[in-house]
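@channel sequence for tomorrow's demo:
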Amino acid sequence: MPDFQFTAEEIEIFRILPEDMLLELCRDLNMILPETVVNLDLAVQIVPEFLDHAKRYGLPFHKLNSDSLNDLTERELQILADICHVKPNVRAILKHGTKVFKTVHEKGRKYHAIRLNMITFLKPIIRYEMNHH
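structure tokens (generated this afternoon):
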């Protein structure tokens, strides 16, 4: 059981995410694929792996993600900045994200699911880090 909780809205999103998308995300994160998929259980397992990936490589933010970043609280923005090793402001995170995309994520289709699911998993990743920070 995780030491963080999904919000009711996140639970609904994770329940309706296509199973293939979650499995592709697991592959991008180099996770062992489960024999059976229960979306919410798999989402719980993905969060720490996604966080580890973000700390190691950064997250491929794009200017289109600025609204999601602007919606973060100051504390959430600080935690995200710490994860990405940048200053705690949206501009710095977006600039770093562009570099991450060009150097890590632009190399073919690898990490496609990470880009597609990054915003969906963003707040759970931040909360998980807050509980371990």
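heads up for whoever presents: Residues 112-132 form the longest helix (21 residues).
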